[in-house]
Fold these 2 entries.
Entry 1:
Amino acid sequence: MANSATTTAAVPSTAERILDAAEDLFAEKGYSATSLGDVADRVGIRSPSLYNHFKNKEALYEAVLERLLADFSAPLAELNGGPVTNERVFSWLETIVRQHHANPNLARLLQHAALSGGPHTNELIDRLFRPMFQSDARIDGDSITLFRDTGLQPWAVMAFNNLVMSYVTMAPMYRDLLGQDPFSEEALENQLNLIKMLLLAVFEYKGSSPSAT
Amino acid sequence: MANSATTTAAVPSTAERILDAAEDLFAEKGYSATSLGDVADRVGIRSPSLYNHFKNKEALYEAVLERLLADFSAPLAELNGGPVTNERVFSWLETIVRQHHANPNLARLLQHAALSGGPHTNELIDRLFRPMFQSDARIDGDSITLFRDTGLQPWAVMAFNNLVMSYVTMAPMYRDLLGQDPFSEEALENQLNLIKMLLLAVFEYKGSSPSAT
DNA sequence: AGGGGCAATGTGAATAATCGCGCCTCTTAA
DNA sequence: TTAAGAGGCGCGATTATTCACATTGCCCCT
């Protein structure tokens, strides 16, 4: 079977190993603070060799983003593919929680982009979040009386998104603070239960909005 | 001569102007990505002059942290000064929301520290969050049945904290996404209402936990 | 009153390290 | 043989930091 067709799929190619290393480093330090030397070191090559695979630093960053976006856009597209019911919101939230838990790098990268900018930040926003508010993907129906009349809907959606993402971006702090690995299986279940309960509480909340100022 | 030195009531000293500039830049770009040249440029002096006021870059960063912590530790200390009732939790949350709204730099700095580390990160955690879980500052009483038996209490507290902080760290993204200034007065009221309603929903939620069934 | 120190605060120049990046050569496998 | 990939080398820019100076205002001694 040593055919000379293509041997790229079986063993991770150098380009893929560069992408892996760059993704981790960009997520940790942000775009500008990440040096190509660091990336090359982690791959085990010299930094000039990176230019055999990517045009320059920005192209590498772009490739990292592209790969991440391909994975993370799917659940939202699927949610937008049908009516937004409570169960579908539940399952959407559970999916993205598990996704961010399995790979925290997109959330971290996004947080860096929100704080410091960097290349392709606008594209990042457009492809990850804009579809939430442009299509019919608004939480509607008879179940949510909480946000209907106060104009909080987009903010509420973003709040739940923040809940998921900040869990990941703050994870190193939690490790120290609570003495538990935030990416363990039990921590994932904890996080899922907490978010589910919050969402349930919101769904079932029938009280009046706090008009007191 | 082209100096816009309209000296108001209190003339900020050079050291204070350096602190102001450094705080903004550290919050935006993080510790390592902020250059002393940038800081000096914003103050209007040359970078070697910074060394007349601070020993080195790390000492400057430390001074920035110290000034921020002095402001932001007060509400938590006050909450810990008495029994943790619902109303006191409400008012604590409102206070920190308003504080982060008035000065978003601590949240941004903290997010950078959580992502990339940097000097004094552990001290930052200790002084801002550790007191929440070391003293009696746990949400107790008969009102919160939601988290009592599932061991989620610390995670729930941090979740609300994240809600507040990620609003700030994600603000630039919101500006683009929702077409509204996240730091306007109305946006502040929105954010306050949303968090209050979430907290209320949690307080009044009487359903069974999903894992208990 | 006058001037000699002196600390505080600014500056430009210089240094060593690191950065992104491109040119060129060598190795290796089909 | 050939071409892709890895590495050596170095350029130019930027970094934090130090140093030698210039300038200012203030205290003290005569």
Note: Confidence is low (pLDDT under 50) at residues 1-10, 142-146 of chain A.
Entry 2:
Amino acid sequence: MNSIEEKLKYSNYRITGQRAAILEVMMDNRGKHLSAEEVLYRAREKMPNIGMATVYRTLDKLASIEVLYKTMFGEGRYRYELCDEGTHQHHHIICPGCGRITEMEDDLLNILEQKIESQGYEIIDHDLKFYAYCPECRSKR
Amino acid sequence: MNSIEEKLKYSNYRITGQRAAILEVMMDNRGKHLSAEEVLYRAREKMPNIGMATVYRTLDKLASIEVLYKTMFGEGRYRYELCDEGTHQHHHIICPGCGRITEMEDDLLNILEQKIESQGYEIIDHDLKFYAYCPECRSKR
DNA sequence: ACTAAAATGATAATGATTATCAATAATATT
DNA sequence: AATATTATTGATAATCATTATCATTTTAGT
Ligand SMILES: [Mn+2]
Ligand SMILES: [Mn+2]
Ligand SMILES: [Zn+2]
Ligand SMILES: [Zn+2]
């Protein structure tokens, strides 16, 4: 169960026009971290009458089957992005100066996860964020 | 600048009765993760007229000088706890079944942080969460 | 075509956080 | 000590992202 198609198939929920539009938006914006509002705006370019409740519902559904990754970068609203396929979800570096979000691949967490699993837990997900001034913002201080 | 007293002193903001009460609440609940509402409730036991705006203001202020750690465990509201002194902030394991939060010490992130700093970033903070079914919740499935 | 279930969109409701502002308290100045 | 200046407080209203409601529409299975 790895590709988006498989996840959708096994979720057995209907691929309506609205949902396809939202998924397209997310795929068109691979690597970006979109808020529900931004998704609504872009989805309306494909489907002018789509409502915001549908956007919220669909984003949550896609997140629940791990097609999307839903997280908050400390601004009081969730953002969504396509999940990494196969590999571990990447980490984020958020600059408190300019708000820019950088991504980071790494496998060190596997070690921690093994430790946690050896204590009887079943890991579903993880979320690692660094708050760090980026090189540009640092030079401006 | 490590102990709470030092942090308060260098922050030079006034230690009013309300602020002392809130700080006391947090110290009485070391290891717990309290919402603003819970802090309000407990603070009112010491100071019946304290208002909720003051609680929010104070919690944010204490978080800004790193006396408190403010984070969200995926339920749409922030929670606050005393910062670890000296050492690195610990990590959290959140059980999607029962909501229980477990803490975890570890130093592996130092390696990642060095990597990030070598790229010119200046790290302020980090936040690592694992979402994992706890042993009890696992056996109930 | 017919029926049952699922999805949609408009709108209202919720709930946590923030802003406002007059009243009060703390500190500095005389 | 009295006064002036500044910060803090609490009541309340405002904000804003997310959720709930519900009548209507769409879909899938027969
Ligand atoms: Mn990302
Ligand atoms: Mn903790
Ligand atoms: Zn920056
Ligand atoms: Zn549990």
Note: Chain B has two domains: 1-87, 88-141.
